[in-house]
Amino acid sequence: MSSITPKFILRPFRESDAESIAKYANNPRIAANLTDGFPNPYGLDDAKKFLTMAIQNEPYTIFAIEINGEACGSIGIFVQSDIHRKSAECGYWLAEPYWGKGIIPEAIKQIVNYGFRTFDIVRIYARPFSFNKESQRVLEKAGFTLEATLKKACFKNGEFCDELIYSIVR
Ligand SMILES: CC(C)(COP(=O)(O)OP(=O)(O)OC[C@H]1O[C@@H](n2cnc3c(N)ncnc32)[C@H](O)[C@@H]1OP(=O)(O)O)[C@@H](O)C(=O)NCCC(=O)NCCS
Fold it and tell me: Which atom of ligand 1 is nearest the CA belonging to 128?
């Protein structure tokens, strides 16, 4: 366990983040843990496309994780619709050089706080793959609890895997 969490801030994305996002997101070890909507390989055009979607007005739903002046990852909170409208899904990824330093658990705590203050929701959840022990660990460290295991719910990189649902409820 890391004793010192490097300084990071969550802030809205900017067009000038394209190069750092393309640099860090272009990593199969990140893509392997996300939906197929996350490109691999990940080029500058992918980053620009992402930023077109991510640069938005308040209330913000996607934030850059800025470390040493660079966008080194992303964390988002996405309010659902219809009968699920009081729930939001949380998703995140971090540049590999910064893994294992306790950044994402702190970022999740901040986004949970922001989410419950900003949106009319009572539940925030995340859906890691069953093999993603690091993500399960960060959710536990951020106060989430395991709710469910959806057997063979995902087909990723040619293989079935279970999907876990973690949540924190107000
Ligand atoms: C999963 C991820 C978000 C973790 O973020 P993080 O800021 O590295 O989290 P932490 O520093 O708290 O580490 C979490 C666990 O990873 C493991 N870990 C520690 N050092 C590590 C390292 N150098 N490399 C990889 N994993 C490490 C440990 O088990 C740690 O738990 P511990 O603190 O109890 O020892 C990050 O690895 C990532 O972006 N992965 C790819 C994308 C992804 O999985 N997104 C989530 C989809 S649900």
Answer: 48
| Residue 115 in contact with ligand 1 by CB distance below 6 A | no
| pLDDT tens, residue by residue, 116-125 | 999 999 999 9
| pLDDT tens, position by position, 10-63 | 999 999 999 999 999 999 999 999 999 999 999 999 999 999 999 988 999 999
Does the Cβ of 103 fall within 6 Å of ligand 1? yes
0.85 surpassed by pTM: yes
CATH of domain 9-169: 3.40.630.30
β-sheet with 159-169: strand ranges across:
9-11, 62-67, 70-79, 87-94, 123-126, 159-169, 145-156
Tokens read off for 10: 């969550």
- Rounded to whole angstroms, the Cα distance separating 19 from 24 reads 9
Q: Is the CB of 138 under 6 A from ligand 1?
A: yes
Atom of ligand 1 at shortest distance to CA of 135?
Answer: 1
Q: Give me 129's structure tokens.
A: 């793959």
Q: Where are the domains of the chain?
A: 9-169
